[in-house]
Amino acid sequence: RSPIYTHFQETLLGVSSIRAYRHQDRFIMESEHRVDSNQAAYYPGICVNRWLAIRLEFIGNLIILFAALFAVIERNSGGRDLDASIAGLSISYALQITQALNWIVRMTSELEANIVAVERTKEYTELPNEAPAIIYEHRPPH
């Protein structure tokens, strides 16, 4: 977004010159081009986020379904009687799974991004140093 804000700020500072030379259309087109370029990179990220959220909520809903089914099956099995509080507790914990899955995936991706930054920093620290500005052994004669 920095190019958008920079262009907008420069346009505001030079608005009198832009109007004086009647270049409003050129600056509007440039601003629209910068916003379009930003959205071209931003929109796929939003789509991938929605895709992931749908998959994670589907998995969470399956867990809730199976927790409820197991509670009903255990209740009707005729063996040991399942207490309603235990069934409610298991279903309420299953309801929290969707949020936990979303949080885990987001934290994992953020951790991966931060680890990449650390790897880059490590790589740059291991690069050989540049030569000093003056190499006294190889100076030209005076």
Structure description:
Helix content is 79%, strand content 0%. It contains five helices and no strands. Helix 1 packs antiparallel against helix 3, helix 3 packs antiparallel against helix 4 and helix 3 packs across helix 5. The protein is flat and about 100 Å long. The mean pLDDT is 88.
Quick structural overview:
This protein has 142 residues and is mainly alpha-helical. It contains five helices and no strands.
Sequence-ordered SSE layout with sheet pairings:
Blueprint: H1 2-13, H2 15-20, H3 24-76, H4 84-95, H5 97-125
Measured distance between first and last alpha carbons: 53 Å
Unreliable runs, pLDDT <50, ≥5 residues?
A: none
- Count of β-strands: 0
β-strand amount: under 5%
Residues in helices, as a percent range: over 70%
This entry's quaternary arrangement is single chain
> Any idea what the radius of gyration is?
30 Å
Shape: flat
